[in-house]
Write a structure and sequence with these properties.
Elements (H helix, E strand, L loop, with lengths): L2 E7 L3 E7 L4 E8 L5 H12 L8 E8 L1 H7 L6 E6 L11 H5 L4 E4 L15 H15 L3 E6 L7 H14 L3 E3 H4 L5 H31 L6 E4 L5 E3 H6 L7 H14 L4 E6 L4 E7 L2 E2 L7 E2 L2 E2 L8 E3 L5 E6 L4 E8 L1 E2 H7 L2 H12 L9 E4 L11 H9 L5 E2 H5 L5 H10 L2 E5 L2 H7 L10 H17 L9 H29 L8 H10 L17 E5 L3 H11 L4 E2 L7 H8 L2 E13 L2 E6 L2 E5 L2 H23 L1 E17 L2 E17 L2
Parallel strand pairs: 1-4, 4-9, 5-6, 5-7, 7-8, 11-23, 19-22, 23-24
Antiparallel strand pairs: 1-2, 2-3, 9-10, 11-12, 12-13, 12-16, 14-15, 17-18, 20-21, 20-22, 25-26, 25-29, 26-27, 28-29
Helix pairs in contact: 1-7, 2-7, 4-5, 9-20, 10-16, 11-16, 15-16, 15-17, 16-17, 17-19
Length: 665
């Protein structure tokens, strides 16, 4: 029997699993190496392959947060955007101008009407001159092309793609290949983001493939898309924007597989965030608008995920305004992990406690991240603080000496120039014996808890005594409560269709009563969620059982939940689709708009029949290209009929064909 490998590169850990068709045979976690993601992948794979023959591996699949993180952090290649038939004001819509970040935008005459007829001819000569000049003087890595109403006729995008290829040889991203819905600026945004991600994901694919080659694994490499389905790595390299929310999508697919639940709330708690999604009848709910990430609304099909800035590595600190603990959203390095690598930090924290007088930044450590900071752009105070830090953790309080450099410190954190080590929920879990991975450095977590508890008490906050376990239990309760709030917000948002991130005050008051946080004299309220809660991710089982109890539902703790993302990468299917639209030309004639062009017919049914034949062929070709074998085809058709002065009038017909099958081994 052939074996399969699943890999997930998360913000904190890189996970790997070795499976046959139904069973997890081995699993491993390795710290993600952001400077070279291939190192983290290699270390995790070496652990799961221990004793297994590399030649027996017939399938490898990878889920990744790389595309999502790159968008959020504003990273990626330099892109030129070609807009055909657009007015310059289009850059003010959908965040398109902001997303381009001053990169070159080329406006060219052309584009089509809603009927699919040309507005005017494509100005090929102007495009050739402009793109040649941009390529020569700006050093762009890829080009994005979006034409007005290209979903009704892709002719000008295809012509422009050929011109750009001939003039530059650069990778080209066309809007009509990535989205089939109307909304020209959002389609242009999706194409631009895709082009920006091409060099980013290409590097990851190269490192992952090199790692597999070094280990003697010859199996094909697949990548998880944002909707949880799979595609070959070479296809992902062409359309990296489709890997937005790849990690959360893999977690939902993995949770379904290991829990066996058909209707379930999936809460994936990682180091930085908790991602919440809903499964109905075994299928994840997909976003109707497309994946939203980094403030940009794309047109990429993806699992509907609600993200809360709460994770195992969230910074736990005292908030002087609320006079209580604050959790996240900043991610830091847990003290137990820092002490395992730098034992001297234990001495520093013990000296703080022995000194008796606690200051704001005691228990915090900062480490420079070499190669990312631009010293020339620093203020004098920033340069002063930078000089006091090093490649090993330095006590922030000691680095400040006799002056406060808070602004400089937070600027470094925002830009990712330094890493901070502080008390986290991961430390609390170790103190309570809920996690043992860094048990050898438990003392660091205990000292950090003592420092935080003393400082909180001295600053007129809750008095939690001197026992580290008391503060750890307090943190655990706060994390569970925050997770409850996040799930309630997600559920209410899904039900109402508003997807708001925070409940109105009146609704929140009612939920506080139902959660037992407040008491009402006249009535009792109880919550009861119909869906079970499945917790996945390394920190989940430390916090989410209490969350399920608050929500009045059962908690599902499936085996191997800590590597569910990697499992989801293995058990997913290849899914590819093709869409078309039929619009009326007159009472007796109809126009079919497909990715290959337009055709006219004398009857709606004749046009629909031709559409399904065309779409079946395109979906089949895309499925084979994505790596599917033995796939099934399913057809969908929705006729839009409008009421016009009491008369039913045909407006358009939306048709699609979906190809679903197992990946080739």
């Amino acid at each position: 029997m052939g074996l399969k490998i699943g890999i997930d590169t998360g913000g904190t850990y890189t996970d790997a699993v070795l499976m046959d068709d139904t069973t997890v045979l081995a699993s491993a976690k390795s710290l993600t190496t952001r400077e070279d993601l291939g190192l983290g992948i290699s270390r995790a794979l070496q652990k799961v392959l221990d004793g297994a023959q590399a030649s027996a591996i017939d399938f490898v699949s990878l889920s990744t947060t790389l595309a999502t993180n790159a968008i959020v952090e504003g990273q990626g290649g330099r892109v030129a955007l070609v807009l055909i038939g657009f007015e310059p004001e289009a850059l003010n819509r959908a965040g398109l101008g902001e997303a381009m970040q001053g990169q070159p935008v080329i406006f060219v005459d052309g584009g089509h009407k809603a009927t699919g007829e040309p507005r005017c001819a494509l100005d090929a000569e102007s495009l050739r001159q402009q793109i040649t000049d941009v390529h020569a003087h700006t050093g762009v890595d890829a080009v994005a092309i979006s034409a007005f109403f290209a979903v009704r006729n892709p002719e000008h995008e295809i012509q422009a793609r050929d011109i750009v290829h001939e003039a530059t040889g650069l990778p080209v991203s066309c809007g009509f290949e990535l989205a089939s819905r109307l909304d020209a600026p959002r389609r242009a945004l999706t194409a631009a983001i895709n082009a920006r991600l091409i060099p980013v994901l290409a590097q990851l694919m190269q490192r992952a493939q090199a790692t597999l080659d070094d280990l003697g694994v010859a199996a094909p490499l697949m990548v998880v898309k944002g909707d949880g389905s799979l595609m070959r790595a070479v296809v992902a390299a062409r359309s990296p924007v489709e890997t937005i929310l790849s990690g959360p999508a893999a977690s939902v697919v993995g949770a379904r597989f290991i829990s066996g639940e058909q209707d379930v709330i999936v809460a994936d708690m990682g180091g930085t965030t908790t991602d919440i999604a809903f499964l109905d009848a075994g299928q994840p709910r997909l976003s109707t608008l497309g994946a939203q990430v980094g403030g940009y609304q794309t047109m990429v099909s993806a699992v509907q995920v609600h993200t809360c800035g709460l994770g195992g590595d969230s910074w736990v600190r005292y908030d002087r305004e609320t006079k209580d603990l604050a959790l996240g959203p900043t991610r830091v390095v847990p003290l137990c992990i820092t002490a395992a690598q730098y034992p001297d930090t234990l001495t520093v924290m013990q000296d703080v406690i022995d000194g008796g007088y606690l200051r704001t930044h005691d228990g915090l450590f900062a480490t420079r991240r070499e190669g990312v900071a631009d010293i020339k752009k620093m203020s004098s105070k920033q340069r002063d603080l930078w000089a006091r830090l090093g490649d090993a953790p330095v006590s922030v309080q000691a680095a400040f000496r006799d002056q406060t450099l808070d602004r400089a410190l937070h600027r470094f954190i925002e830009r990712g120039w330094i890493s901070i080590s502080a008390f986290t929920p991961t430390d609390a879990a170790h103190i309570l014996g809920l996690s043992t991975e860094w048990a050898d450095s438990l003392k660091a977590s205990q000292l950090g808890a003592c420092i935080l508890a003393h400082y909180m008490r001295n600053s007129h906050g809750p008095d939690l005594g001197d026992d580290p376990a008391t503060l750890a239990a307090y943190v655990r309760a706060r994390v569970s409560a925050r997770a409850s709030d996040a799930i309630i917000n997600a559920a209410v948002g899904e039900h109402s269709g508003t997807l708001h991130s925070q409940l109105p005050a009146a609704q929140q008051a009612l939920f506080n009563l139902a959660l037992g946080r407040d008491r009402a004299q006249a009535f009792d309220l109880r919550l009861h969620f119909r869906h079970a809660l499945a917790g996945i991710g390394a920190p989940a089982h430390s916090y989410l059982p209490e969350t399920a109890q608050q929500l009045g539902t059962s908690y599902c703790a499936p085996q191997h939940a800590e590597v569910a993302n990697a499992i989801g990468a293995v058990v997913g299917l290849v899914k590819q689709s093709a869409s078309a639209t039929i619009t009326p030309l007159s009472a007796r004639s109809f126009r079919l708009h497909t990715p290959e062009g337009n055709s006219d017919f004398n009857s709606l049914e004749e046009a629909a029949h031709a559409a399904m034949q065309c779409l079946s062929r395109i979906a089949s070709e895309r499925a084979r290209d994505a790596g599917a074998v033995d796939f099934d085809l399913s057809e969908q058709r929705h006729d839009v009929i409008v009421d016009q002065d009491g008369e039913k009038v045909f407006f358009e017909s939306q048709l699609s064909v979906h190809a679903t099958g197992r990946p080739a081994l």
